User: Fold this.
Amino acid sequence: MNLLFVCACGYLIGSIPSGFLLTKLTKGIDLRNFGSSSTGATNVLRTGDKKLAIMTLFFDVLKGFAFSSGVLIFFDELTLYISSFFCLIGHAYPIWLKFKGGKGVATVAGIFLSISPVITLISALIWGIVAKFGKISSIASLSFCFTFSLIAAIKSLNDHSFVRLTLFSISVFVFLLYTHHSNIKRLFSHEENNFYNKLKNNKEKL
Assistant:
């Protein structure tokens, strides 16, 4: 019963639609009908409002970090990983928005940060490098989670306490591959736009 309760809490906390609420209240925009249709920070940035995008990023990271940190204090490791995954599902498929939310990267970052800050910061550095030189948001986002999983897997070879973290991070990576499936299709067909060009085009539409 404890596991079910914590998972339900994780889903509900994860499903708080920060980006949707911020843009709806301040700009009157329904993010589900704008840009990539995602309610995450990247799509908020496409509205041309950097402050709102930063606020969305902050709150999406915060809900993952706060939830996982709380579970880490009061529950066992298995409950942490299962309930944190439900927090991620809540972000991507919020019941309040007819199950149409964000891609999940910011919330994943918050979850990872609470579990392993060092690996998260290294992964964030890789994200920054890929974002700067590749200029494609989806590749940068996936590289963040892939790097985390790779480092966790390498560490698990010598420290078995990292095995569950490795399995969890790989599961999260697979989930992110699914939430980014449309981006991946465009990448393979060479139709995934440069993020900055996309940002410029969307600003002109507003």
Q: What stands out?
A: Residues 202-206 have pLDDT under 50 and may be disordered. The first helix runs from residue 2 to 14.
